[in-house]
Amino acid sequence: MRVRELKRVEAGEALVRIAKIGVNFADIYRRTGFDPQPLPFIPGLEAAGMVEEVGAGVHHVKRGDRVAFGRQPGAYAEACIVPAGSLIALPDTLSYEQGAAIPLQGMTAHYLIHDFRKPGPGDVVLIHAAAGGVGSLLVQWARHLGAHVIGSVSTLQKAQVARRVGAHDVIVYTEQNFAEETMRLTKGHGADLIIDGVAKSTFNANLDAIAVRGHIVIFGAASGPAVPISPNALMPRSVSLSGGDLQHFLQSTEELQRRAHDVITGVLEGWLTQEIFQIFPLSKAAEAHRLLQGRHTTGKLLLSTGTAAASSD
Predict the structure, then answer these.
(1) What range(s) does the Enoyl reductase (ER) domain occupy (predicted)?
(2) What pLDDT does residue 5 have?
(3) Helix or strand or coil: residue 5?
């Protein structure tokens, strides 16, 4: 989508010349129909770039500002018009790569770790897909809060990544029974909090890995939708179960800015990092999707527009 094809910038909006674009499972869900969208639509929810134009009533950003955004459709483009209130100011010390890699997954990790059962010292947190984009951020955040972190991954290569980002213990769930391993590692206690973005391959066994009065949060379906369970299956260990979607945790500009501020603060303080797995040109978005959907990645996949904004970072 080129600038000349964009609609006019209206009051409260900003035109952002995009440099780097974050690739997320949400893009795949929309492309495949798991999250149906009216057609035609432009994929992408997350990007970083430079403000090129602002509409009436916009005062907190101006032309030339470096910004990022998440949860705003149409990011797979050279430029995008977004509500100005959704823009996140990028400090000069953060690159466009960091700006595109961190907002959506960073804010996802923020609500998952804070808004259901915030862990602390003495808690055990089991994080599935611990080497992925959200998973690696969750590992770092849970450890920053003092929890003992167990990472669950699908390959030995991903196990190395999970350890590198801070997991105390790592389970390769394709080779080990992760519920049994979790119980062994915790001497029968189990995980106080399980965060699961994998679903079909992991969800039912979570009930065998969870501690008494533990909490399970499911926020994705990387391996497909989870097999349904009876609510009564939660009773034997008094388990609570939640589902989350980032859009419900960005209900106001204030909430978005608060979460974004916490994420950027973690990055600037050095305890929160997002590894970039690979950067594709925008024209190779299909290849990026194949890698991510096939679960062949660790860290973050990005697209680059090759625009002037991209080269000015």
Answers:
(1) 2-303
(2) 52
(3) helix
Q: Are 298 and 164 a contacting pair, CB within 8 Å?
A: no
Instruction: Read off the tokens for 241.
Output: 């179960």
3-state secondary structure of 99: helix
Asked if residue 134 has pLDDT above 70, the reply is yes
**CATH number of the 106-247 domain:** 3.40.50.720
What confidence score (pLDDT) does residue 34 get?
86
Question: Is the model more confident about 116 or about 4?
Answer: 116
d(CA 73, CA 38): 12
- Here the contacts of 254-257 (C-beta below 8 Å, separation 24 or greater) are 256/85, 256/86, 256/88, 256/107, 257/88
Within 8 A by CB and 6+ apart from 263, the residues are 102, 103, 106, 107, 109, 110, 272
Alpha-carbon distance of 78 to 3, in angstroms, equals: 7
Secondary structure element (H or E) that encloses residue 209, with its range: helix 203-209
Its pTM stands at: 0.89
Q: 297: pLDDT confidence band, cut at 50, 70 and 90?
A: confident
For domain 3-102+274-311, the question of CATH label 3.60.150.10 is answered with: no
Cβ(123)–Cβ(192) under 8 Å? yes
User: Which residue in 197, 153, 191, 158 sits closest to 171, CA to CA?
Assistant: 153
* Residue matched to tokens 């991954």: 153
CA gap 107, 117 in Å, rounded: 16
| Residue-level pLDDT at 4 | 42
Domain ranges across the chain: 3-102+274-311, 106-247
